[in-house]
Design a protein that fits this description.
The structure holds three protein chains of three kinds. Chain A is α+β, with helices and mostly antiparallel strands. Chain A has six helices and eleven strands. Chain A folds into two domains: 77 residues; 156 residues, Sandwich (Immunoglobulin-like), CATH 2.60.40. In chain A, the strands form two sheets. A six-stranded mixed β-sheet of chain A has the order 8-5-1-2-3-11. Chain A has a five-stranded mixed β-sheet with strand order 4-10-9-6-7. The longest helix of chain A has 34 residues. In chain A, 45% of the residues are buried. Classes of the chains: A alpha+beta, B mainly alpha, C mainly alpha.
Chain lengths: 328, 689, 210
């Protein structure tokens, strides 16, 4: 009876799945890296099913068939068998070897620093080298990512602009991010688009991806970073190259300049509810390095003990005192 | 002095001020009321029936491994209830706080828990469940059963056994104290770095977490030493290594992990402590610290730790399934080999907890392959259990129901684990609730085996059976809750929901969150049935007395003793001839043979030293948390002084004479609740010789 | 269940074991102590791992490197001192085997003095470094440098405390089983501390200076 109940419960859970397919972003990857990841998800699950399905069937079968009341065959002396032992060590070992090969292939294909899915290592460009790839691919588009408590700052070093909580990139071009934090560890996550990588203070990580069509996605931090963590979303907009060019020009006219001094204001602990974007121009191209070196020198932005009970800090972008109960 | 503390510090009270007590928080008020009521329910009857002397003499100062084990289990179950309640609060918050338009009550913007409180709740949920619920219960089971299974009278170091118990309890008491005095860590049960540094966690919360774990880890390490020595040196004659019961084997392997892995945790936390107390730069981002050092050290402990939890569970399955299939365990030797293979390889896989930290493809590949390799011996165990059931005669008592369900959970957990072992997949689901659902499958399978073990061995220790009907309802509600909650959670993982969110920004997750909440409702119902199970069983205990082999088909040595087990375990140490000694004796028709004469037995004496060390350890821990240096110093010195004084008192224990044993053996067993360690008073009834 | 003791048939297997329990308390305690030493070895292993991670340019930050603060010559004197302490203690256990209580006490006292000399040299070294503004709070590398040596020093202090207790227990109880067990375990502990110091000397002082 308990099995029927559990089955019913499982079906009820499945039946509650929303019909909207696009909410399963992971199953609708965009870009070669994400597609590769999804591909390996299917392979891995499929190969594992070779073991899991028969084992589950056998478990249920034996559990039901050999009940005392069923009066099936009873053989208390059957407690070892060399052949079966060889099979139960050997078959999984072979499965693991297959999966190990899959791992080896996949890990290089989706390596965040230099994924082969975006081209072989020789074809890919080193950061900032500007060398064209063998396939004629353009140099990767560079974005520097700096996380604070609790916002994402995207710096475009070559364009001299920066945004808060809005990652805008051109479609069809390899994008390379270099990431650091000025507070605690975060984890950049755009489901269905980008392999995750940790964003750590005093360290620099790299992440690469490409999206070939225009899209709008939600990104966030996957590594808990404190009180404002739940509000660390950022929007990701992939625009066609002409639209992107226009956006860059527009942003270069933004009144707010993200000098290092301004950055130090922006980096103070604040919760950006609703992930309202903000734009800066006049950003020095070495802001990332300055921030990184400062963190290495011990500059950080301590969280006040009462940040959670009192209102969040005045918003550095608007200057207004935040209200704990404000609508988002 | 070395660090910048936010808030005041005084030499007398350290950081402690009246502001540290959250008077005005209604949730804490509720928790306080429940704790006080619970405490009264426990202590009240003791005072009313004037049993304080008995409790002190027979339980608080005991060195009997069975009583210590029972106390471990009771403590673990209470902490499990609190951890469950934390889980209930997490689920309720998340279902209420989904979407930008979700309402907020009680200081919270969305839901009813502001982030600072929510973060403490899931941190304590993880810490309590892993280290203060599951670990003590499994330790308690090992404490009770292993000496019985190997034919010993007690553990190798009975006093140290009690000290381990108290150190664990002190850790739990520190976490309980954090509810009402100050706050708890908000950085997760793993202590995410550098979030746990003083700059980002300025309150005493992380200190509570750190010292609770450090103190209880010492208890765990001492317990490991105890069990390993017991198994190596105190086996009954004839109990060769190839005749050792499988639960003892898994306990041995678990203890080796406990002995070797927990010191690394100690180092990881000590370095964090140095950063927080002395201003050093082990893990800071600046001035030469390396935060990845913490992550590596922590998970070098952390992965063997999860095998520390799961191997006893596997041992329980290996005992329960053969008993209720009326067949010996299939492939005993490979099961032992698989156990040690798991324990060994578990040392080489820790990086799979942080593939996204950017170690590079070669390093990630190595750890990925190692992780998948550890799945092979686990799979071997599953096959062996299935083959044990094959051509057996299965009786579906509640322990067997729990065990077969645990097998199914292991299959789901194992599948998702191998998926996670692939870095490419991991980069898409790291820190999502897919991972949370995976590891909950594993820890729930441990919980399932714990319930199986408690119901299975309860009659042996207490002398009466647990009520099967309430037990069945408990099983059903718990299993339905598990299925609903975690199936929905796997789906949410694929929808991109990440973990540790106080506010969930995507309203599309709402339907599945509601399914999870219904699952939690079933869990709440299961708690009611759990309470009912014990209430009815204790109420009807006179009707459900158990003999030495209450299930009828037991196979191992502990079922040779009376039920309940007398404090000296075996009147005469048995001689062992075979694996599954009791099954062999049954097959020869000699399982009811009694010794024809008795000899004097030497037993260890009860002592107050473990309780004293516990009290001093609490003083030390509390003093360190609040930086009350005189209290911490006093606690530490008092522990050292106690140990030194103890070494000056020759503890020869005491002797039970052969005549006393003959009398005790000749009457109905009084058991764990009623018997005392003192020589018996004169008996009223005549004893037939 | 049958409470009557029946005589087993003649060819029945021996079901019960009479006679003294085979457990030797000294063997049990020594095994337990070896197991504790394994856990202690892992503590040091963890700290050495941390040392390996932080003994690098990133760990030095702007503070001194290992080469700038270690003095292998002075540390060699410390090494000789601690090894002499172990030698003194071993001589004490040789005296113990012949039942010579005075020899035991003498050996232990010498061992304590040499240990205190070792600790004194170490503290002096620390004081010099502090005066040069090389403190644990200066950099990650210095944090782990001081921690490693201080952890070893703390173990030495506990060892000295244990020796002092034994100096009281040997005359008071004589060389009974408990006292001999403790003396043997203390020897194990002491030799282990010396071995750890040799590792420290090699990895911190010799390797650091090169």
């Amino acid at each position: 009876m308990f099995k029927v109940l559990r089955l019913a419960a499982g079906l009820a859970a499945l039946a509650a799945l929303p019909g909207c397919a696009s909410s399963f972003a992971m199953f609708h990857p965009v870009g070669p890296v994400a597609t590769s990841e999804f591909h390996f998800l299917l392979i891995s699950t499929g190969v594992m099913m070779i073991i899991i399905v028969p084992t589950t069937v056998m478990t249920c079968l034996f559990a039901i068939r050999y009940r005392k009341s069923a009066n099936a065959a009873y053989d208390p002396s059957f407690s070892h068998s060399l052949l079966l032992e060889l099979a139960m060590w050997g078959v999984p070992l072979m499965i693991v070897l297959v999966l190990a090969y899959c791992t080896y292939r996949s890990v290089f294909l989706v390596n965040p620093a230099a994924p082969e899915a975006l081209g072989s290592p020789q074809a890919q460009n080193a950061l900032g080298s500007g060398v064209k790839g063998a396939a004629g691919a353009p140099a990767p588009f560079e974005v520097d990512v700096i996380t604070t408590d609790w916002q994402w700052i995207f710096v475009y070093p070559k364009q001299g602009i920066a945004t808060i909580d809005d990652l805008v990139i051109p479609a069809g071009q390899n994008v390379q991010l270099q990431l650091t934090s000025v507070s605690v560890t975060n984890d950049i996550y755009i489901p269905g688009a980008l392999p995750m990588i940790d964003v750590m203070p005093g360290m620099r990580t790299l992440d690469s991806f490409r999206v070939d069509k225009t899209a709008g996605m939600e990104g966030f931090s996957a590594d808990f970073s404190g009180d404002g963590f739940s509000w660390m979303q950022f929007s990701t907009r992939i625009m066609s190259p002409p639209d992107f060019g226009n956006w860059v020009k527009q942003t270069q006219a933004a009144p707010d300049h993200l000098t290092y001094a301004r950055f130090q204001q922006v980096a103070r602990p604040t919760i950006n509810e609703g992930a309202k974007p903000h734009y800066f121009s006049g950003v020095p191209s070495d802001l990332f390095t300055t921030v990184y070196n400062a963190t290495r020198a011990g500059v950080d932005y301590p969280v006040p003990e009462d940040v959670q009970t009192k209102a969040p800090f005045p918003s550095p972008t608007t200057g207004k005192q935040g209200d704990v109960k404000a609508s988002s | 002095m070395f660090v910048h503390l936010q808030g005041p510090w005084s030499p007398l009270f350290g950081r402690l001020t009246l502001d540290s007590i959250p008077y005005g928080n209604p949730i804490i008020q509720f928790a306080f009321a429940v704790t006080v009521l619970g405490g009264l329910a426990a202590v009240g009857p003791m005072l009313y029936y004037r049993k304080t002397g008995y409790i002190f003499r027979e339980w608080l100062t005991t060195v009997d491994h069975k009583k210590i084990g029972v106390m471990y289990i009771i403590f673990g179950l209470v902490m499990m209830f609190r951890g469950f309640f934390d889980g209930f609060m997490i689920r309720t918050q998340q279902v209420m706080a989904d979407g930008p338009n979700s309402p907020g009550i009680l200081e919270a913007q969305h839901g009813y828990l502001p982030p600072s409180h929510f973060d403490q709740i899931y941190s304590s949920h993880g810490t309590l469940m892993i280290l203060f619920a599951v670990t003590p219960i499994l330790t308690g089971l090992g404490n009770i059963i292993v000496p019985l299974q190997i034919g010993a009278r007690d553990m190798a170091f009975p006093t140290m056994n009690a000290i381990s118990l108290y150190l664990t309890i002190v850790g739990g008491m520190l976490i309980m104290a954090s509810l009402f005095i100050g706050d708890f860590s908000q950085a997760g049960w793993v202590g995410l770095i550098p979030l746990t540094e003083l700059d980002f966690s300025p309150s005493a919360g992380v200190d509570y977490w750190m010292w609770a774990i450090q103190i209880s880890s010492i208890g765990t390490t001492l317990n490991a030493i105890n069990i390993i020595t017991t198994i190596i040196g105190m086996r009954a004659p004839g109990m060769r290594w190839d005749r050792l019961p499988i639960f003892t084997w898994t306990t041995l392997s678990t203890s080796i992990i406990g002995l070797t892995a927990f010191p690394i945790l100690g180092v990881a936390l000590a370095l964090l402590g140095a950063d927080r107390y002395l201003g050093t730069h082990f893990y800071t981002a600046g001035l030469g610290g390396n935060l990845m050092l913490y992550t590596d050290l922590f998970w070098i402990w952390g992965h063997p730790e999860v095998y520390f939890l799961v191997l006893p569970a596997f041992g329980i399955l290996s005992e329960v399934i053969p008993t209720f299939s009326e067949k010996p365990l299939f492939g005993y030797i490979t099961m032992v080999a698989a156990t040690f293979a798991i324990a060994g390889i578990s040392w080489a896989v820790w990086l799979h907890h942080f593939f996204t930290m950017g170690a590079g493809p070669w390093v990630n590949s190595f750890f990925s392959v190692a992780t998948m390799l550890v799945g092979i011996p686990t799979g071997v165990k599953v096959f062996n259990w299935i083959l044990t059931m094959y051509r057996g005669r299965i009786t579906y008592t509640t322990p067997m129901l729990w065990s077969v369900s645990a097998l199914i959970l292991l299959l789901v957990g194992g599948l998702t684990g191998v998926m996670l072992a692939n870095p490419a997949i991991n980069y898409t689901v790291h820190n999502s609730v897919f991972v949370v659902a995976h590891f909950h499958c594993m820890v729930l399978l441990i919980a399932f085996t714990i319930f199986a073990a408690i119901i299975y061995w309860f009659p042996k220790i207490f002398g009466f059976m647990l009520d099967e009907k309430s037990g069945l309802r408990f099983f059903q509600t718990f299993t339905i809750g598990t299925t609903l909650t975690f199936t929905a959670m796997f789906a949410l993982g694929f929808m991109g929901e990440t973990r540790r969110l106080d506010y969930l920004f995507n309203p599309q997750w709402q339907p599945l969150l509601i399914v999870e909440e219904i699952g939690i409702a079933f869990y709440c119902l299961s708690v009611f049935y759990f309470a009912k199970l014990f209430y009815m069983s204790i109420r009807d205990r006179a009707l459900n007395k158990a003999g030495p082999d209450p299930w009828g088909t037991a196979r191992t040595l502990e079922w040779l003793t009376h039920s309940p087990v007398p404090f000296y375990n075996f009147a005469v140490t048995p001689r062992v001839h075979q694996l599954d000694e009791l099954a062999w004796r049954k097959s020869q028709g000699i399982d009811h043979e009694m010794p024809d004469h008795y000899e004097d037995i030497h037993m260890p004496r009860n002592t107050i030293v473990p309780l004293a060390i516990g009290v001093f350890a609490f003083a030390f821990g509390f003093g360190m948390v609040w930086r009350i240096w005189w209290m911490a110093g006093f606690g530490l010195l008092a522990i050292i002084a106690t140990v030194i004084f103890r070494s000056f008192t020759p503890d020869h224990g005491y002797i039970i004479t052969a005549e006393d044993i003959a009398r005790m053996e000749g009457r109905p067993p009084s058991g764990i609740v009623n018997d005392t360690h003192a020589p018996l008073p004169a008996m009223e009834e005549k004893v037939t010789p | 269940m049958d409470a009557h003791a029946a005589s087993p048939p003649d060819n029945a297997p021996d079901l019960w074991h009479y006679g003294h329990d085979g457990n030797d308390p000294m063997a049990m305690k020594t095994l337990g102590f070896w197991l504790y030493m394994i856990s202690d070895a892992l503590i040091f292993g963890g700290i050495f791992a941390a040392y390996g991670v932080l003994d690098q340019p990133m760990g030095f930050y702007t503070g001194p490197t290992a080469a700038q603060i270690v003095h292998p010559g002075a540390a060699f004197l410390q090494t000789i001192t601690i090894l002499s302490s172990v030698l003194a203690y071993s001589l004490a256990t040789v005296a113990m085997k012949t039942g010579n209580k005075n020899g035991v006490m003498l050996g232990i006292a010498a061992s304590i003095l040499l240990a205190l000399m070792f600790l004194g040299l170490e503290l002096n070294d620390f004081a010099t470094l502090f005066a040069q503004h090389a403190t644990p709070q200066t950099s990650g590398f210095l944090s782990v440098f001081f921690l490693l040596i201080a952890t070893h020093g703390l173990h030495m202090i506990f060892g000295v405390l244990w020796m002092l207790v034994m100096l009281i227990q040997v005359p008071r109880f004589g060389l009974n089983t408990d006292v001999v067990t403790r003396l043997l375990n203390l020897r194990l502990f002491w030799q282990f501390q010396a071995s750890v110091w040799v590792c420290v000397y090699i990895f911190v002082y010799l390797r650091g200076a090169s």
